[in-house]
């Protein structure tokens, strides 16, 4: 609690430019809120040029809707867009003050990226990961400044959801924690802390619930509509678990379940049906086809 108070009241970040890596559902949202709410300059990097184009269209569309609703002005929209630049080259992050990584949920790919970032970024740059489940301590061990590595776990969709889970690794410094909390406050987010354990708090609780819904579908306990409507209308969930899984991305759900399973035991075994959907490329809303079609 004291570190929250310190960060919010007395500490201001020297963060002017933030690099966001991965222009998918999460990266685009993080870049937008950094530019729109925290008024930071943002460089959004993705290896895939099509993704870059898609994220620009997505951000523009979201801002346009806010203008139509009267939430922001046309000038706010233009200023936000001016603050975001796009790149397919990681070297463009050599002068940023802070990085938020939001690439695919794969331990090896993330660790390799952090190894590269440690070589590219200037000393002292904070390297935050938006991972849903991978150990921050493990990611940090691939850099030469593990004290500057931290988990900054945003929720989907980033412009709407209030929470950021902050996860210090074993060697994360207090200075890094304070700057991260302050940046989250500048983005108008509320923070919680989680220990660096598989799935942290949010996904340790959420994923077994989603996985059980997939398993229930697999066993024929009900149709997908029966399962979702029961939880929505019967338990007052804002959306059913299978709809939510489509929204998160079934590949991401499967990766998180695998990490929980490997590190915490058989209680967390992913449903075989979840694996089948991923093998079929039915990854959810982002590809317009998961349990439902969009
Ligand atoms: P996504 O599939 O929409 O986007 C991932 C992006 O990363 C893709 O655009 C891909 O081109 C890019 N990418 C892959 N490897 C790269 C590399 N080496 N360098 C640069 N770009 C690379 O996935 P997402 O849903 O945005 O999830 C991204 C991260 O955020 C994951 O770690 C996930 O666990 C986490 N997360 C997801 C959610 C969610 O609800 N989807 C919520 C919180 C956190």
Automatic annotation (TrEMBL):
<feature type="binding site">
    <location>
        <position position="110"/>
    </location>
    <ligand>
        <name>NAD(+)</name>
    </ligand>
</feature>
<keyword id="KW-0560">Oxidoreductase</keyword>
<feature type="binding site">
    <location>
        <position position="132"/>
    </location>
    <ligand>
        <name>NAD(+)</name>
    </ligand>
</feature>
<dbReference type="InterPro" id="IPR006108">
    <property type="entry name" value="3HC_DH_C"/>
</dbReference>
<dbReference type="InterPro" id="IPR006176">
    <property type="entry name" value="3-OHacyl-CoA_DH_NAD-bd"/>
</dbReference>
<dbReference type="Pfam" id="PF00725">
    <property type="entry name" value="3HCDH"/>
</dbReference>
<comment type="pathway">
    <text>Lipid metabolism; fatty acid beta-oxidation.</text>
</comment>
<feature type="domain" description="3-hydroxyacyl-CoA dehydrogenase C-terminal">
    <location>
        <begin position="199"/>
        <end position="294"/>
    </location>
</feature>
<dbReference type="InterPro" id="IPR022694">
    <property type="entry name" value="3-OHacyl-CoA_DH"/>
</dbReference>
<feature type="binding site">
    <location>
        <position position="156"/>
    </location>
    <ligand>
        <name>NAD(+)</name>
    </ligand>
</feature>
<dbReference type="GO" id="GO:0006631">
    <property type="term" value="P:fatty acid metabolic process"/>
</dbReference>
<dbReference type="Pfam" id="PF02737">
    <property type="entry name" value="3HCDH_N"/>
</dbReference>
<protein>
    <recommendedName>
        <fullName>3-hydroxybutyryl-CoA dehydrogenase</fullName>
    </recommendedName>
</protein>
<feature type="binding site">
    <location>
        <position position="286"/>
    </location>
    <ligand>
        <name>NAD(+)</name>
    </ligand>
</feature>
<dbReference type="InterPro" id="IPR036291">
    <property type="entry name" value="NAD(P)-bd_dom_sf"/>
</dbReference>
<dbReference type="InterPro" id="IPR013328">
    <property type="entry name" value="6PGD_dom2"/>
</dbReference>
<feature type="binding site">
    <location>
        <begin position="22"/>
        <end position="27"/>
    </location>
    <ligand>
        <name>NAD(+)</name>
    </ligand>
</feature>
<dbReference type="GO" id="GO:0070403">
    <property type="term" value="F:NAD+ binding"/>
</dbReference>
<feature type="domain" description="3-hydroxyacyl-CoA dehydrogenase NAD binding">
    <location>
        <begin position="17"/>
        <end position="196"/>
    </location>
</feature>
<feature type="site" description="Important for catalytic activity">
    <location>
        <position position="153"/>
    </location>
</feature>
<feature type="binding site">
    <location>
        <position position="105"/>
    </location>
    <ligand>
        <name>NAD(+)</name>
    </ligand>
</feature>
<dbReference type="InterPro" id="IPR008927">
    <property type="entry name" value="6-PGluconate_DH-like_C_sf"/>
</dbReference>
<comment type="similarity">
    <text>Belongs to the 3-hydroxyacyl-CoA dehydrogenase family.</text>
</comment>
<keyword id="KW-0520">NAD</keyword>
<dbReference type="GO" id="GO:0016616">
    <property type="term" value="F:oxidoreductase activity, acting on the CH-OH group of donors, NAD or NADP as acceptor"/>
</dbReference>
<feature type="binding site">
    <location>
        <position position="46"/>
    </location>
    <ligand>
        <name>NAD(+)</name>
    </ligand>
</feature>
């Amino acid at each position: 609690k004291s570190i929250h108070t310190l960060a919010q009241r007395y500490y201001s970040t020297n963060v002017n430019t933030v690099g966001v890596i991965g222009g998918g559902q999460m990266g685009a949202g993080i870049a937008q809120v950094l530019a729109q709410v925290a008024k930071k300059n943002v460089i959004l990097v993705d290896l895939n040029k099509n993704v870059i184009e898609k994220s620009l269209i997505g951000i523009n569309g979201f801002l346009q809707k806010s203008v139509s609703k009267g939430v922001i002005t046309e000038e706010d929209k233009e200023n936000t867009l001016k603050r975001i630049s796009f790149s397919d080259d990681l070297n463009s992050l050599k002068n940023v003050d802070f990085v938020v990584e939001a690439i695919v949920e794969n331990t090896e790919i993330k660790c390799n990226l952090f190894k590269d970032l440690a070589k590219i970024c200037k000393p002292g740059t904070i390297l935050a990961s938006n991972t849903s489940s991978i150990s921050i301590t493990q990611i940090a061990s691939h850099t030469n400044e593990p004290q500057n590595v931290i988990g900054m776990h945003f929720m989907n969709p980033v412009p709407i959801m209030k929470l950021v889970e902050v996860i210090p690794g074993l060697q994360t410094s207090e200075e890094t924690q304070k700057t991260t909390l302050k940046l989250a406050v500048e983005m108008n987010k509320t923070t919680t802390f989680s220990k660096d354990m598989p799935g942290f708090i949010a996904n340790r609780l959420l994923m077994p619930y989603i996985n059980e819904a997939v398993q229930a579908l697999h066993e024929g306990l009900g149709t997908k509509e029966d399962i979702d409507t029961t939880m929505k209308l019967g338990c007052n969930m804002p959306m059913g678990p299978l709809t939510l899984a489509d929204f998160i991305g079934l590949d991401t759900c499967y990766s998180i379940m695998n990490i929980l399973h490997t590190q915490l035991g058989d209680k967390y075994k992913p449903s075989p049906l979840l694996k089948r959907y991923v093998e079929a490329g039915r990854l959810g809303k982002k590809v317009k086809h998961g349990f439902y079609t969009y």
